[in-house]
Amino acid sequence: MRTRWKCVAGAVVAGALVTGCGPDPNDTVPGIAADPNSDNSVTGFELQWEVVGDHKTIKAGEMTFTFTNVGTIKHELLVIRTDLPVGKIPVGADGRINEADPNSLNVGETGDLDVGKTITFKAKLEPGKYQLVCNITNHYKNGMYMAFTVD
């Protein structure tokens, strides 16, 4: 899970401005309340231009994905099985990943996810490497992906 940081200006001490940064305890992000010990669920969120989930490694089998769109535009979430490096799945002239390509196969998805909405879906995952991606035109190219491994 990613921690958001809050930076604040402090006071002027001996002619220098003192500032500090640290975790922002008031910054709660919808979708990141899952049990970190859960072996069969991934919870997270999407925003511009990022996909964030609470697990980087999960166990094979039926998985439940619960994601919230905390961005300002529509997104979607696909589970792509691929051995390609994160962010390196080829994108066509239409700005999208070919979801039927055996090198980047779509094994589960949300469909369109409107702003502020949360959706839950299930996918049966075999051991391997995966990426969670948004495949709306140019969103993957803009950084909307996250790698994870299934053991």
Describe the structure.
By secondary structure, the protein is an all-beta fold. The protein has a single domain (29-150), classed as Immunoglobulin-like, CATH 2.60.40.420. The protein is built from no helices and 11 strands. The chain has strands at residues 5-13, 16-23, 41-47, 50-53, 57-58, 61-69, 75-81, 105-113, 118-125, 128-133, 145-150. The strands form 3 sheets. The protein has a 5-stranded mixed beta sheet, with no helix packed on it. A hairpin with a 2-residue loop joins strand 1 (5-13) and strand 2 (16-23). Residues 1-35 have low confidence and may be disordered.
Q: How do the helices and strands line up, and which of them pair or pack?
A:
Layout: E1 5-13, E2 16-23, E3 41-47, E4 50-53, E5 57-58, E6 61-69, E7 75-81, E8 105-113, E9 118-125, E10 128-133, E11 145-150
Parallel strand pairs: 3-6, 5-11
Antiparallel strand pairs: 1-2, 3-4, 6-9, 7-8, 7-10, 10-11
CATH class assignment: Mainly Beta
Count structural domains. Answer: 1
Number of β-strand runs: 11
Q: Strand pairing plus helix content: what structural class? A: mainly beta
Low-confidence stretches: 1-35
Main β-sheet, in a few words?
5 strands, mixed
Trace the largest sheet across and list its strands. 5-11-10-7-8
CA radius of gyration is: 18 Å
Describe the global form.
globular
Q: N-to-C terminal Cα separation, in Å?
A: 19 Å
Q: What is the helical fraction, as a range of percent?
A: under 10%
CATH homologous superfamily annotation? Cupredoxins -  blue copper proteins
Rounded mean pLDDT score: 82
Query: What is the count of helical runs?
Result: 0
Per CATH, what is the topology? Immunoglobulin-like
